[in-house]
Design a protein that fits this description.
single chain; 137 residues; alpha+beta; 5-stranded antiparallel β-sheet; 3-stranded antiparallel β-sheet; 2 helices; 44% strand
Length: 137
């Protein structure tokens, strides 16, 4: 898996590594959805376009994950695939390919409330991007 789940009291963490920033953010998005359900059960029948504008890169990461949680709360959005088209230190544009949550087909996982700034880390070292983000559950 391109991401790893980190245990923490009242929170769960995601840690991801990728060769590019767009790939890193896509992996974090899929990691988030893997907490909500088994992403292998999600079909690609709908798309959601996502735009995030934030003051800096750490905020882009947190706002990105919180926007995904908003889409899940509003539309039941689940992703089978996350495509990050462009990202900068203040902006992100992505597309989710998936479907709305169906309790008959999608097992319930963890209820994630929000991405936080607690111990947030986003780094690029020697061409590898790494992020650690903790989520309130």
């Amino acid at each position: 898996m391109p991401f790893e789940i980190l245990e923490h009291t009242a929170e769960v963490g995601l840690r991801a590594e990728a060769p590019t920033l767009p790939a890193l953010l896509a992996d974090l998005g899929m990691g988030l959805f893997s907490l909500i359900t088994d992403v292998q059960t999600v079909r690609r029948v709908r798309t959601w376009d996502v735009e995030v504008a934030s003051p800096d890169l750490p905020s882009v990461v947190v706002d990105w994950l919180n926007e995904l949680l908003f889409l899940h709360a509003r539309d039941g959005a689940l992703a089978a695939e996350v495509c990050v088209h462009e990202v900068s230190p203040t902006h992100l544009h992505a597309t989710l390919h998936g479907e709305p949550f169906d309790p008959q087909r999608h097992p319930r996982g963890i209820e994630v409330k929000a991405a936080t700034y607690h111990q947030l880390r986003v780094d690029s070292v020697d061409g590898t991007w790494t992020a650690v983000v903790y989520l309130d559950i």
